[in-house]
Amino acid sequence: MSDTVEVLTARDVPLGGPRAMPVRRTLPQRARTLIGAWCFVDHYGPDDVARTGGMDVAPHPHTGLQTVSWLFTGEIEHRDSMGNHAMVRPGELNLMTGGHGIAHSEVSTPDTTVLHGVQLWVALPDRDRHTARDFQHYAPGPVHLDGAEVRVFLGTLAGATSPVRTFTPLLGAELLLAPRATVTLDVDGGFEHGVLVDQGAVTLSGTPLARAELGYVAPGDTTLTLTNETDAQARLILLGGPPFGEEIVMWWNFIGRTHQDIAEARQEWQDASARFGAVEGYPGDRLPAPALPHATITPRKNPTRH
Ligand code: MN
Questions:
Q1: What is the pLDDT of residues 56-90, one digit of tens each?
Q2: Phi and psi for 261 in degrees, rounded to 5?
Q3: Per the CB 3.0–4.6 Å rule, which of 38, 167, 171, 278 could disulfide with 128?
Q4: What distance in angstroms lies between residue 22's CA and the mean position of ligand 1's atoms?
Q5: Who wins on pLDDT, 40 or 300?
């Protein structure tokens, strides 16, 4: 059905923290809020940690969402208010469910010289957005195709299925494309998809995508064809899911449905409520929430295709 790919370009955003590592954000943006339940796509690096200071995000809360950490290079130390102390390493999924409330810190380790990866969020559907906090880890083995290597961290692709539990159907995979290779992947026609280019230059179903761009494909396509246009390996992140169908309110680290949801979560974080719990072992203070805007926070629009 749909042959056209919508190209979403990144904007540079300083990540929270005193040294503010820069990230490239492709979701959300004016043209698009969601791809399936994927609602946040930050892409960073390769970052010379000696120059930028790397990642140092003090304890902060989340509600109504899951966070997906996926690294290409480097290592991040994760601590959360469930007592999890985990190392995020390349090729290993760390999926944290905020649900009703969680707090965590993320710090690149002293041994990390280059930091390179993505930080993604998944919106929880209304029926599950107050679920219990949770943390899952999964290291998918590679699937070898002609011209590509695929690691499926969420959902099903190329005959591989991730065992990790999500609240809506999702696809999340890393793809390595050999130089000049073309691969055609069978995908769920009920899903919309996004392809983020980490490294190289590709065409997605005929549309060129440069590094750090996110190509969006509407539901209706049952195959995606990707071509690496370069003489070096290309690396991509493929995301997908059925259209989310709910309007969400996103502010700071919270997802709700109304301004009131956000205002309550913010106040409870400021009050150090048990809703979020405490992060042990981070050497420093927790992040204070910014001031709420004076205007009512309204749902983000997710326009259908133009
Ligand atoms: Mn976070």
A1: 999 999 999 999 999 999 999 999 999 999 999 99
A2: -55, -45
A3: 167
A4: 15
A5: 40
Q: Give the chain's domain count.
A: 1
Spacing, Cα 119 to ligand 1 middle (Å): 9
User: Measured in angstroms, how far is the CA atom of residue 158 from the centroid of ligand 1?
Assistant: 30
Structural domain range at position 195? 6-241
Centre of ligand 1 to C-alpha 105, Å, is: 7
Residue 1 within any structural domain of the chain: no
Does residue 254 form part of some domain?
Answer: no
41 C-alpha to ligand 1 centroid (Å):
12
Query: What tokens does 111 get?
Result: 């041994």
On whether residue 214 sits in a domain, the answer given is yes
Is the residue at 284 inside a domain?
no
Task: Give CB contacts under 8 A, 24+ apart, made by 21-25.
Answer: 21/47, 21/52, 21/53, 21/54, 21/55, 21/56, 21/115, 22/47, 22/52, 23/119, 24/212
